[in-house]
Design goal:
This protein has 17 helices and 33 strands. By secondary structure, the chain is an alpha+beta fold. β17 and β18 form a beta hairpin. α2 crosses α17, α4 crosses α12 and α5 crosses α12. The relative contact order is 0.07.
Amino acid sequence: MNELANSTMTQDSSPQRIDFNTPELKRKRRVRALKDRLTRWYVAIGGLAVLAAITLIFFYLAYVVAPLFQGARLSSANELTPGWLQDSGKPLMLSLEEQNQVGMRISDKGEAIFFNLDDGALLKRVSLPLPAGTYVSSIAQDQPGSPLVALGLSNGQVLVLKHTYPISYPDNKKTITPTIAWPYGLAPLVLDDEGRPVEHISLNAGVNSLLLAGTTGSQLHVLALEQKENLLTGDTAVQQVSIDLPQVSAIVKAVYIDPRQQWLYVINGRAQADVFNLRDRTLNGRYKLVEDANTEITASAQLVGGVSLLLGNSRGGLAQWFMARDTDGEQRLMHIRDFQLGTTPIAQITAEQRRKGFIALDVSGALGVFHSTAHRTLLTEQVANGAGVLAMSPRADRVVLEAAGKLQPMTLKNPHPEVSWSALWGKVWYENYDSPQYVWQSTASNSDFEPKLSLAPLTYGTLKAAFYAMFLAAPLAIAAAIYTAYFMAPGMRRKVKPVIELMEAMPTVILGFFAGLFLAPYLEAHLPGVFSLLLFTPLGILLAGFAWSRLPDSIRLRVPDGWESAILIPVVLLVGWVSLGMSSHLENWFFGGDMRQWITDDLRITYDQRNALVVGLAMGFAVIPNIYSIAEDAIFSVPRGLTLGSLALGATPWQTLTRVVILTASPGIFSALMIGMGRAVGETMIVLMATGNTPIMDMNLFEGMRTLAANVAVEMPESEVGGSHYRVLFLAALVLLVFTFVMNTLAELIRQRLRKKYSSL
């Protein structure tokens, strides 16, 4: 019995073991393992999807942008040898109409022939009403795109014609009917009373005026015609006035009239230009066009708009010149930029009718396609065995060359000539500007406008807006994060931190709306008070802290440790009330009653109501929560043992903060700053609504700017899909993406280095 009892007691007193392999626990482990695998795969796939999406965005932007930097392409059709070409005389001018279906040819026989561009078939032959015994000695067209043509005759007279191409639809079939009109009558205008052949001719037509300039040898003739209407009878009379100018000293090669009828350019001698002021009838100056004494001017033309002269020389070079003010304020003919086609003399230059591009042909038959403002050579190709007469369509997509008794139609594909790296990022000397500048101006109200697509002022504006926003946000956010995480009481921290982080949820469009409609005019009216507030707030806080430290312990100890910052709330409110309340008095005392006017007149600083100060305050307010939240978490996550160990070794709380806590948390603080910087760089709505959107390059605090993001938001809806403007906007987005990627990559490298350096603390 005793043995049985002992055996029973031994079995009962043995500890009971837990079975971890029950079916239910095994099922739970399998489910948990499945969840872990699914979560791991979900996170991995999500991360890869984000990387893939960013990569696809990058390649899509690059795909849209790539055509901007492609050159021109020229494709030739079969040569045409129409029968009418054999007996039609020497060609003086070729012209193509808008639809690329009809071409016009004027010969020295005084005939205008219209032909089908596709097969060369004769459409219409018009005999020009030349006086008996005369022939066409010179020919000129008004500005590119104008239908007016002046014919200089061998008897010193000039005939002005206008070629048009009305479109009709008989039997629902599109029909182009070429016509020639005589807007100044069939009777030729007398340019030279002595009856000498007009060797060179130029014309420019205004609303009610016509200006003709021609030469006979070295003799210069200028004739002005003005239509005047009798207000009583309604009859129109044409008044002719001969303009006397100083004569040139050498044989004239070409003459051109400025479209504003202010300047007359006379190319003479080997390589000289005489510029006359038509308004005061004086010589502006004589300009040497090439430095090499063995080089001469062989071809010339006006760029569209008539502001620029294009000059080709005997060494295959081309140059652009136009009038601009020099350092003395006087307008002079300036040499702007050069191009090179080959090594043989330039035979002809033809300008585009809608862009600042042109084509050139040399005596060897080489054709070059150029763009003046972009300073870009888009194509050089051999198209003939010698020189000929060249014409380009108004759309700049068809070219016709007559050489060796044949017509050579060619198709030109040149969609984006106005874009180059120098035009996007360098200073460009635009027409009617006195010096090279960075300019973004994509649209204008007149047809003579040239798009200016420099990304430099937009990039500068992006960095300017980010700088002023970070200048305000970074010190406040980092200081607030340090105090909240290190000095503030836990109870107060639990109230303050969510309130600051809640600021991040405010839509930026609301901030921009508030900044544009309220903050900007308020700052303008209270500038002294605002600057006093920025100056006196830190001073007031320091004085309040100093005064608090001098109070008796019996008073200071009544405030719980870590709650001292609550006492600063009335201090900040009081300083703000006093500063803003004294604004008008400060303005009267120091700035004559108007600080904005004082800034403009005395400091010579431009003041715009919506400026960088407004952007800095509004965008800084939007960036603070991002920086604060990440930096505060990084500082609060510093192991408590490091802090206590430092204090135990005799360091003060301030020494512990600066030499232990901040260094340990520096990777997180740096990440917070970089994320805030990225937010500021990519911000759109605040900058869009709180600035004047002026694309200028000036660090002036009181001027606005335009950023890359805001520019894309404003102009993308107005751009033509596939056009140069459209693709440049995509390029701006690509620049923004690359900039953000580079900044984030550098930030991560620096963060990893900081983490490695201070991980041993």
